[in-house]
Design brief:
28% of the residues lie in helices and 44% in strands. By secondary structure, it is α+β, with helices and mostly antiparallel strands. The relative contact order is 0.28.
Length: 96
């Protein structure tokens, strides 16, 4: 896995669902939430900024969409990968 310093993801979450899931996804790392979220990871951190996008419609199904910008600071590739491995496990939706 190679986690870049900056990237954007489109996620199937409403803002409220995202805010409920975020504390579990970041684990023991301190997180402060305001207009976005800042996660303290050792001597570095992760800045998360998001905005609500129009729902994705598939026939009668409407999926919420949240566009999330990730920006790591002060973390090497191994630390970014380790953090995202846990984060992705907790934020994974649906599947099959």
């Amino acid at each position: 896995m190679h986690t870049p310093v900056r990237f954007t993801r489109e996620m199937a979450f409403s803002r409220d669902e995202w805010l409920r899931a975020l504390p579990e996804a970041v684990g023991a790392y301190p997180v402060s939430v305001g207009e976005g979220a800042d996660v303290r990871i050792g001597r570095g951190g992760l800045s998360l900024r998001w905005h609500v996008a129009p729902a994705r419609r598939i026939a009668l199904l409407a999926l919420p969409r949240l566009v999330v910008n990730f920006e790591f600071e002060g973390l090497d590739a191994a630390a970014r990968d380790a953090f995202m491995k846990r984060f992705d496990l907790y934020m994974h939706r649906g599947g099959g």
